[in-house]
Amino acid sequence: MSTKSAVILLSGGLDSATTLAIAKDQGYDCYALTFQYGQRHACELEAARRVAKAFKVREHRLITIDLAAFGGSALTNPTLAVPTGRNDLSLEIPITYVPVRNTVFLSYALVWAEVLGLWDIFIGVNAVDYSGYPDCRPAFIAAFEKMANLAAAKAVQGQGTYHIHTPIIEMTKAQIIRRGVELGVDYALTHSCYDPDAEGRACGRCDACRFRLKGFAEAGLRDPVDYAGKL
Amino acid sequence: MSTKSAVILLSGGLDSATTLAIAKDQGYDCYALTFQYGQRHACELEAARRVAKAFKVREHRLITIDLAAFGGSALTNPTLAVPTGRNDLSLEIPITYVPVRNTVFLSYALVWAEVLGLWDIFIGVNAVDYSGYPDCRPAFIAAFEKMANLAAAKAVQGQGTYHIHTPIIEMTKAQIIRRGVELGVDYALTHSCYDPDAEGRACGRCDACRFRLKGFAEAGLRDPVDYAGKL
Predict the structure, then answer these.
(1) ipTM above threshold 0.90
(2) Staple A18 to which of A78, A180, B82, B186, CB 3.0 to 4.6 Å?
């Protein structure tokens, strides 16, 4: 029986599903945390529920936070268009960047970890095949971890040390997918698209779809999600 | 006319009211941010509204966040008693500690700062006459500031540097009160008590009341808030 436990940020996308599979494989009992943060669609949340169930997490909490109230991103503001067909996916920080999102998400994960008395937090950030978001890089994660150990009473009292685990941070998308398949991830349960249709089917054109499709192609596998015949 | 602007965390208590007065005195246009985080009473929020109005902030936002969902504090859990009459107020971290609260608050302030294009955040933490909360100490603030400059796209792109201002962090409560009085703070507008009565009047016995009363006594001033004749 597992004796160690972790809080894991679970968006319902490919990266966080694989991160959950890795945490389980490392023997962690998982407490999954998903945010309703004003995304334009609920497909991600449904995907998070499916993935959490498939991996039998100990508890799955959905937290509603109002990042949309502050604006500044195409992911939370319906008047901004999601970009498609950008030439260089890694050149600039795109309008789908949600200001300081991972800082807010990790802060909540730290609250839950401290209340539960856990010391491990998993987050599926990736700094290789990624969208240029600064809060996906190792330097940010290291700075957050250091801050966490100065912020939380249990750490300051010397009861333990918080670790932010980023098992896929240095992997290519193809490596992530291969590792997930090895660990039994059913990627049909996941959702990555920024701009799905009314039935929740992926567009195949936004950055998230393109990274995902490129990853499956490089892994020599077929993406099982429904692109509604658009590919 | 003021040309610089800042986001300021405003709880409605004595410390944040004084911090707002100092920021205004330094020439900042202020965007005040107040959290409804599952506190047991709404007096603090009313106080924040009064103080924001008195200091003519540019905008005052109230954000509801559900820290009570995670539990772990007497301030958000009605089944835990607020302690009174602790012998040494600085000896241990009390049950009124809300896990990682300032990390969450500062994360939201950073979101708003990045969206507004501002670089300055004020927080009225105090590491002298305080309740032993670890996230009020200079080491935590420095670590958060470093993390912020690695998290936010505008900082990473070199557009500027975030500064977390803590103007009262090294002051005694008496010094804070004297400075506030100099700057025209009407402390009758503020609320500090953890355990007010049904009319919102301060108890005079909890840690927050005791720190406050001790500060006024040391400053040689009378606290103008209503203690309902309990003193």
Answers:
(1) no
(2) A180
